[in-house]
Each structure stands twice: as C-alpha cells, then as structure tokens.
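Appendix C reproduces, verbatim, an entry submitted by the partner laboratory led by Prof. M.T., so that reviewers can inspect both the input and the predicted structure.
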Amino acid sequence: MDTVLFVTDLHIGAQIKKYAGVFAQARLRNWHVVEIERERTARPISDFRDTWKPIGAIVDCSGLDKPPNDIPHGLPIVFLDPDPTTVSGFCNAVVSDAEGIAAMAVDEMIKARCTQFVFAGWRNRTNWSVSRGLAFRDLLARRGFGCVLSDAPWNEELEMHRRLAATLRSMRGGRIGVFAANDYVARHVVAAADMTGLVSPRDVVTVGVDDDELICEALLPTLTSIGTNFEKAGRLAVDLLAEAISNPGLSNRHVMFGPTALRRRQSSRVVNTGDWRIVRAVERIRLDACSGLRASDVIRETGLSRRLVERRFLEATGRTILEEITEVRFERACALLRDSTVRIGDVAFMCGWDSNSYMNRLFKMRTGMTPRQWRYATV
C-alpha cells in the first residue's frame, strides 16, 4: 500500500470535514495517509519522508499566511488554500472560491437593505481571508457601494473588538453589513457591535462563513453563515495529487471548491416589526420548518386571528407564513442535496415534506431541474 503525507493544522471547527474528504478519497485509491499536525511536532517534514517513503504529500495552508518552507523537494505535492502570490504557477493547489462565497454575502446584505459594508478579516491575513475580503469589496463596487476592509493582523480578541467597534461607530447613514472571514471572526463582530450599542439585525447585519453550528446557533442573535464544501476540497486534493503522481510532466493546476448554501438565521433576517409575536413566529419557522411545522401551528401560537397574523407577517417579512416555511425547507433541501452522502430519496422527508413528488415539482419550478439533476450540476 502506497503512503502519502497529509500536513495539517490542528483539527478544529469546520476544517474537520476537509480531513474527512482526504481520508475517504485516499481510501478509494488504497493509499495509506500519514497525518502530520504541525502544532504537535517540531520535527521537519523531511524526517517523515525518510521514515515513510511517501509517494506524495497534501499540505494544508489554510492556517498559514505563507506556504511552509520545509517541504522536501522532488516530492509531488498539492497545497490546500495556499497564497497565490508565492506559489502561483509552480504548484498544484486546491483553492476556495472566494468570489462565489462573497457573492452570497453581498446578495444577502442587499436583500437586507444594507447601505454600508465592512469586511472583518482573519488574524494573520491568510490567502483565503484576504481573497474573500477583496472579492467582497469588488462585488460591492460593481453595485455602486464602498467597503471598509478591517483585515489588519491582530493577536488579541479585545484588540479586534475595539478596532471593529471604532469602525462601526464611524459609519453613518444606514444599516451596516459586516462580512466576516469565518464564523469565529463573526462571533467577535457581534461582540464589537454590542460594544457600540448597535442592535442586530436592525442596525448591523452579520454574515459568516463555514456554517459551524457550534458557533452559529450559540450566538444571540443566531448567525447567518455560508457553508463551504470542505469535504469536496479534501477529495479534490487527493485526485489532483494522483494526477501529479501518475503524470509528472503535466502542467500544474489550480482546482476550485465552492460554497454550498447560505443558512439564513437571525443575524441577517430583518423583520420589519416591533411585534414580538411575529418575531417569534419567524424564529419558530427557522427552527422547526423541517420537522413538519404547519402554518396553522404558527398562527395558533401567536394567539391572533389568522387574517391579522398573515397580514402582519407579510408586512414584516415580504412572505406569507406558508411561503416562509417553504423557503426554509427549500434552503435545507439544497444543503442536503449538496451532501453526496445523503440519499436523494430521503431529502423530502428530512425537510418536512410528505412526498418526493412535491419536492420534485418545487425544484422543477424554481431551478428547471429535478433534485437529482440539480445535485449533479452543483456538487
């Protein structure tokens, strides 16, 4: 059995899916993967090469602001999220689709009627963070908006809170949209907004990346976030490494992995009402739409007449209660269809629909494709 090295950061958060993709795809190729966690060893990578005699290596650069300098020469290598300014043109790499991710954030903030925009970057200006910030700025410029890039390096969280709070205080004239490099940063954006007395999402709309439920559901308000297909990134890295090993004369390539879906939560769901019953109804739908929730359940819990609830709900959200339930279910269905481990036949039930035929008709109407066709077109 051939061996490949997998050089990583510590296993934290959503990155775990990337590792799962690497190991799953390597298993299909009958490769033995030796993982080297940088935080757990001081030995140079060359020592592991001498011991394991690998046929190639995958190097995760997502936690680094520049590629590592200890990778042995002459070994086929694929980099995950490297800095393109230092490796572009002479390495194989798998990179995240910064523009695709930023486009989802921009669309969500425009829908929420934001007129001022901030990008909050990662602590050490890694490639994926810088790329997302620049893509966000450029996409907004095409729509006629400016953007503040708050992406200077930072070490302590309180330092970042104060810097972001100062940025938020300096902005005047409308709702602020803050795009955070990832959910960890978004958590600190919420803290900075609290320091300024700004209310989310009335004053500040926040969107993160990774859809890490441990963070997103624990925040108050809960965090809207863009899922990224880390498992696909890991699989792509293995396949690209296999190409480099079997065809060493091929030109180096960059392969891109994109976002999955935006999971809308309270931090971007602007409800234009002061009626707490309507606000609570919106949150109940978000949490329970996929568990068989019906419009009549939502109406009954408000204690108001059906006609009054429907009118106030439509005024506050732009949708009827049934349309809101359908929208939440559809977003969930898209996320499940992007997960190749989920059977298509199970998706309708997992989203709260009674039949596959209804979901098929909905997808055909909205996308022009069946759920199966949509999966193959997007995954």
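The radius of gyration is 23 Å. Additional entries are available on request from the coordinating office.
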